[in-house]
Recover the amino acids of this structure.
């Protein structure tokens, strides 16, 4: 199958997939997609490649072996966030496509860059020192290159015992860049130089490099045993996730944001550490058929243990403190475990079309932002935070009739020891930077209603779908200046989607859909609020058996997103008054050919 898409903002996307079919028990496919586009506001591009492949060989009806490969490679430029007033003034607010001339301000004096003991004409005078020298787009990029490999064996050890073993390995590499201003770099450089670090005086605008990388490998062993009315699943999962992070500021030729990086001129160091997460999970679940299979009861229990460690330079204070030697590289960490995580669920079949369902589960996880907790360089090892715990309860009803299906679920969730994301403005970049806060307990309750309806009057050529969810999420415990009972940040009460699809023939499908998101606070003290908004999208799909001679293996699709070109804020940096706007109306056309 081949597909090619073009659209607004110079979008070009190609997709190719090759499948072998079944060759004496062997099946395989490989696919590749490539996406290239301009940013919708300001200069810069989005360049992404995705490759995927899988091969399966069936030795017999009881045993199969599968290998798979997934690779993602992308290079994206950033666009800035801003306050509500910023986007009210200029909805297309962006970084600049050229360095503003007014930012070039040579400083008096020359610095001994070549360290020959004399500051003379062979040295360099910083020139790109104005406050707006960091508004150029070229130094604001995100780069990732990830590859995931896996192998799976599935075989029956006994007639009623199925074993599935999966090994996986992921190689992760990437970096992000943002410029650092001369004034911000200079103050940190002076302290690190005074402490004797091998740093070089800033030349102007610095290359702010943050690299990430590492690998993740693990094994899952799953057993499924069938005994009369019991379907018993048990097994375990073990994983080691290694993550390496560095942050430093490097000089560029000419002190300019469009200069070449001088890799041996580090203006200051911030981070260089490796964190490791070693996870072990054991589980067992029994699905019991009762009442002539009208009642399915699931009872299970999990045990989770995570060993966490961080080694290296955590932040500035490990390098220097007020011009004196810092704490040096540290080794910190903690153990997180909960060996009793029960779950129970039930599905009761009322008749051929209707069911009731209910469930309870207890979950446990390594806290969000663990690295951000431990990489704050302080004179002591931070107390190990409590792992996040959640209790989830769900009760619902679903029906599936000839021209109508629907499901209604009521839910309640309580988190304990929850770490909330927040953001603070980074003075070096002028953009929000995340950190995490222990907010104690929080809870959420609500419902979700979804369904599809095909009215008989339209002879199954038209159907409508809808999804309505309501969630009241709040702090049980207050923290800091955020009072008990206040709403969780970035948590709208109402989200509703609905659509109408029309299929008058085999070769035509048309759809219009809408999504409503209610207003929400973007901080925990209910200070900043985003307005509610509704967006509409549509598509038309042509293909298949048709009366006008188009090959039946060819299809054409036209998509329109944000049909009415709404200008609204759609994303918030939690805890701050910084936002990102919704992209404007976007039209795409895709041609697909299948052989």
């Amino acid at each position: 199958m081949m597909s090619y898409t073009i659209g607004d903002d110079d979008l070009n996307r190609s997709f190719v997939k090759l499948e072998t079919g079944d060759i004496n028990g062997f099946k395989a496919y490989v696919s590749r997609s490539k996406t290239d586009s301009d940013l919708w506001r300001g200069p810069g591009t989005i360049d992404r490649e995705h490759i995927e492949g899988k091969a399966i060989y069936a030795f017999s009806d009881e045993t199969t072996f599968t290998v798979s490969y997934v690779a993602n490679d992308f290079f994206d430029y950033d666009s800035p966030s801003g306050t509500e007033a910023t986007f009210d003034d200029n909805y297309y607010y962006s970084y600049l496509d050229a360095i503003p001339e007014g930012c070039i301000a040579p400083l008096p004096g020359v610095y001994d860059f070549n360290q020959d003991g004399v500051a003379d004409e062979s040295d360099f005078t910083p020139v790109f020192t104005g406050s707006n020298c960091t508004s150029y787009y070229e130094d604001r990029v995100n780069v990732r290159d990830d590859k995931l490999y896996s192998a799976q064996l599935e075989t029956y050890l006994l007639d009623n015992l199925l074993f599935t073993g999966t090994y996986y390995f992921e190689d992760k590499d990437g970096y992000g860049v943002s410029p650092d201003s001369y004034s911000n770099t200079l103050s940190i450089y002076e302290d690190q130089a005074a402490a004797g670090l091998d740093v070089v005086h800033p030349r102007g605008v610095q290359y702010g490099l943050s690299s990430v990388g590492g690998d993740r490998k693990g094994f899952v062993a799953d057993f499924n045993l069938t005994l009369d009315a019991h379907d018993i699943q048990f097994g375990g999962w073990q994983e080691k996730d290694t993550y390496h992070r560095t942050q430093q500021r490097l000089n560029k030729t000419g002190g300019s944001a469009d200069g070449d990086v001088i890799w041996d001129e580090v203006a200051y160091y911030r981070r260089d550490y490796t964190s490791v997460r070693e996870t072990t999970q054991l589980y067992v679940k029994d699905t019991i058929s009762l009442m002539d299979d009208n009642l399915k009861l699931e009872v299970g229990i999990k045990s989770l243990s995570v060993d966490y460690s961080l080694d290296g330079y955590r932040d500035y204070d490990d390098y220097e403190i007020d011009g004196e030697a810092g704490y040096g590289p540290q080794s910190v960490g903690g153990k997180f475990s909960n060996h009793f995580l029960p779950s129970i669920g039930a599905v009761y079949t009322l008749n051929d079309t209707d069911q009731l369902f209910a469930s309870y589960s207890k979950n446990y996880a390594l806290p969000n932002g663990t690295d951000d907790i431990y990489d704050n360089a302080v004179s002591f090892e931070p107390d190990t935070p409590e792992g996040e715990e959640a209790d989830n309860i769900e009760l619902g009803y679903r029906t599936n009739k000839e021209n109508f299906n629907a499901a209604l679920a009521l839910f309640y969730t309580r988190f304990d020891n929850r770490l909330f994301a927040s953001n603070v403005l980074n003075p070096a970049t002028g953009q929000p930077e995340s950190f995490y806060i222990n907010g104690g307990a929080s809870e959420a309750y609500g419902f979700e209603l979804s369904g599809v309806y095909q009215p008989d009057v339209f002879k199954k050529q038209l159907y409508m779908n809808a999804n309505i969810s309501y969630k009241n999420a709040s702090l049980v415990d207050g923290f800091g200046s955020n009072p008990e009972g206040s709403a969780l940040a970035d948590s709208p009460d109402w989200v509703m989607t609905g659509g109408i699809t029309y299929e008058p023939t085999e070769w035509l499908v048309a759809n219009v859909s809408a999504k409503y998101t209610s207003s929400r606070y973007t901080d925990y003290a209910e200070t900043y609020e985003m307005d509610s908004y509704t967006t509409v999208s549509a598509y038309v799909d042509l293909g298949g058996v048709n009366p006008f001679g188009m090959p039946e293996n060819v299809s054409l699709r036209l998509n329109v997103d944000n049909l009415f070109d709404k200008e609204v804020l759609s994303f918030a940096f939690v805890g701050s008054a910084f936002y990102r706007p919704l992209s404007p109306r976007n039209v795409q056309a895709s041609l697909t050919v299948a052989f």
Notes: The longest helix spans residues 182-194. Helices lie at 84-89, 182-194, 316-319, 370-374.
